[in-house]
Specification:
Thrombin, subunit H; 5% helix; globular
Amino acid sequence: MNKPLAGALLSLLLSGAAVTPAAAAPAPTAPATAAPAAVDFAGTVALSNCSGSVVRAPGSQPNDPALVLSNGHCLESGFPAAGEVVKDRASSRSFSLLNSSGSKIGTVRASKIAYATMTDTDVSVYQLTSSYAQIQSQYGITALTLSDVRPAQGSAIKVVSGYWKRIYSCNVDGFAYLLKEGGWTWKDSVRYTPSCNTIGGTSGSPVVDVATGKVVAVNNTGNEDGGRCTVNNPCEVDRNGTVTVRRGINYAQQTYTLVPCIAPGNRIDLSRPGCALPKP
C-alpha cells in the first residue's frame, strides 16, 4: 500500500511546492475544442495518515450529509482483514479541508464510517456531520463528483494528494484483472503510467479524469521493491493465473462501482440494483 509516511526524509525528498496543472491557452489558429477540466486541491482533504476528498454521487443533493472518500487501509482502526466489511460504524475522525491552492481552510468531521473494505477494492467512505450546502456556504468548496462510468485506457488523469499537497500527472496505462498484495486481492485495478510515482501518504488520493474533472479511482498502492505479491509489492494476476511484477508502478481502485450503492440521502445501500460492493 502507499502507506502513510510522515518522516523527515520524505519531506526532504519533496520540493515542498505543490505541482499544479498549467493552464496553457490554445494557439489562436487552433480549432475549437473542449477545454480540459481544471484540477487542483479544492475539495481534497488531509487525513492524519493519508489523503482523501469530499465527494458526491451524480444524484447527491445539497442538503445531503457530505461524504469523504479514502482507502480502506487508511481507517483509524487499522487495515480491515481480507473478507472484512465495515458498515455504518460510528467515527468522529477529523479531516483538514483544502482550497484550490492546497491551503487548509477548515476542518470537517465524520459522524460514521459509512462503508470500508479491502476486499475486491480498497476504499473507505466517511459520512460527515456537515452537508454539501454547509461546506459550500462556510468554505466555498464544492465536492468532487464521482464518475459513474469506467475510466478509459489511455485517458489523462491526475492524482491529487491532500496529505503532501502534491499533484501527479499521468495516464491510465491499463487494468490489472487481479492485483494481489499480502493477504488482499483487488479486482480490475487501474495501473498508472510511470510518471504517477506516488508515495506513502498519497493513499486515498482522488484520481481525477482531466477531461471531465470527475473522480474515476482512488489511489492505493505501488510495487516498491520488485517483490512478488507481498505487502508494498503488489503483483498482477491475469485471467490465466499468470503473475506479472512491475517494479515502481503504482495503482488505484476504480470508483464508478460506488455510485450504484449510494441511495438517496447519501446512504450506502448494498442491496440496490447494480451495487456489487462486498457485503458484511
